[in-house]
Write a structure and sequence with these properties.
About 70% of the residues lie in helices and about 5% in strands. By secondary structure, it is mainly α. Helix 4 runs antiparallel to helix 9. The chain is globular and about 55 Å long.
């Protein structure tokens, strides 16, 4: 698919119509209402949403920055697809960035940084599991990873991880067949390592947690592509 040249997301007010449309489209894509490879014509979306084409265009630009759709001049946006290469690329980048985030977060904890948001995100991830709602579970898990990035205190890392977290939430929804209880145990171990303030322990805990998800995720995507799993 065409590569996006934008290096930072468009500046959009979180209370704007564009943000609302972005949220609606994102939810529809990651829950499968819009299928992978499906075209998203601006005019049709604007008609369906009862709005003009401008906020739709801006919302699609945000989704393109997040790597959820691809856009090309004078052509409809298209929902991106997950295949082995896309999954491998995501995990390779996560392996490069998330252990760093965990190490920096642990260092800041040792210096006295507030861990309240991190613990709140962990509780939310546990609460989401009880709902059996794939979207809520996925977004809670992505939020937990996002809080670790925020705790790192590194603004460039936070910016780089924005698109990664968006794709992670989408992939988490698709792969809800994974052993969620085991993931919660891994999350608890990970948070404990960060809160201990031990940088190396936190770094290795994140490395182990991230890498542990690669093989089962690839297996689920392969099964989906071969029609062995419904959804």
């Amino acid at each position: 698919m065409p590569r996006e040249s934008r290096s930072s997301p468009p500046a959009i007010d979180d209370t704007s119509q564009t943000r609302r449309i972005y949220d609606d489209l994102r939810r529809s894509i990651i829950t499968g209402a819009y299928k992978e490879g499906q075209k998203l014509p601006e005019a049709r979306l604007a008609d369906q949403l009862g709005t003009s084409r401008l906020p739709v265009r801006e919302a699609l630009a945000l989704l393109a920055f997040d790597g959820i759709v691809s856009v090309s001049p004078r052509r409809s946006a298209v929902v991106r697809s997950w295949d082995r290469t896309a999954v491998e690329e995501l995990f390779d980048v996560r392996i490069g960035l998330e252990p760093l985030a965990a190490r920096l977060a642990a260092a800041r904890v040792r210096q006295g940084a507030d861990t309240t948001p991190l613990h709140a995100a962990l509780r939310d991830s546990h609460a989401a599991l009880a709902t059996h709602d794939p979207l809520r579970i996925a977004e809670a898990n992505a939020k937990l990873h996002g809080e670790i990035v925020q705790l790192s205190g590194n603004s460039l890392l936070t910016q780089l991880m924005r698109t990664i977290l968006a794709r992670m939430a989408w992939l988490f929804v698709i792969t809800t067949q994974r052993a969620v209880a085991g993931q919660l145990d891994e999350h608890q171990h990970l948070i404990d390592a960060i809160v201990s303030g031990d940088e190396r322990l936190a770094e290795y805990a994140m490395l182990d947690h991230t890498e542990a998800g690669r093989r089962p995720t690839l297996a689920i995507i392969a099964a989906l592509r071969h029609g062995d799993i419904g959804g």
